[in-house]
Amino acid sequence: MLDKNGIAKRIAREVKDGMFVNLGIGIPTLVANYIPEGFNVVLQSENGILGMGPFPFEGEEDADLINAGKQTITLLKGSSVFDSAMSFGMIRGQKVDLTILGAMEVSERGDIANWKIPGKMVKGMGGAMDLVASAKNIIVAMQQVNKAGQSKLLPKCDLPLTGVGCVKKVVTELGVYDILPGGGFKLLERAPGISVEQIKNATAGRLIIDGEVPEMVL
After folding, report:
1. Fewer CB within 10 A of the end CB, N or C, for the chain?
2. Buried b (16+ CB within 10 A) or exposed e, 165-198
3. Burial class, 20, CB count within 10 angstroms (exposed 0-12 / middle 13-18 / buried 19+)
4. Pairing state of beta strands 185-190 and 75-81?
């Protein structure tokens, strides 16, 4: 199965030349390290950055340059830094082509829960609500099962929702899934070494398998 970097590397293949892309907190931030060479892709961070580069090498960090997850980053030539009002103006104005988010749960109808666990302290929802309400295309990067081995791809989300019917694609340590308009996780690719049977056992929501499912190429 894939580790977090493997998930990010696979999602980077969904990024097209010329895109403006927002990277959420967690696994999505790693996508910056795998943008194909030669692509003109502009990465946006909701705390007010346009033109993020990959993570800095150890010893080259600048504590004043951080993403929305408070991780140190690099800036590419031509990048810009601005206030959160302008950043959310870009998001709400649908200037972002692709949003890549982490999630705690995703339903078979494309609902996403990624901001709150009831009973646990939360500082705030951040930009999650704005991102899912305004994004043209949302891909979720997540672990498919929790620490107890329970599926997080569900018929219906149990946690408070961030957005309804907004997720288009999910990439996990086990596979790649399209969420169909009528509902259901359509399995597109298997992670290296993972069988369809393993994926069935790890998917609580409606799983759709159409013919032979190829192993993903990273």
Report:
1. C
2. ebbbbbbbbbbbbbbeeeebbbbbbbbeebeeeb
3. middle
4. unpaired
Distance, in Å, from the CA atom of 57 to the CA atom of 31, rounded to the nearest integer, reads: 16
d(C-alpha 176, C-alpha 127), whole Å: 25
Residue numbers annotated as active site: 46
> Which pair of tokens denotes residue 113?
């829960």
Of all helices (H) and strands (E), which one includes residue 198?
helix 196-201
pTM for the full predicted model: 0.93
Label the pairing between strands 105-107 and 112-113.
antiparallel
| Furthest C-alpha separation in the chain | 50
Q: Could you give the 3-state DSSP secondary structure of residue 4?
A: helix
CB atoms under 10 Å from CB of 96, counted, come to 21
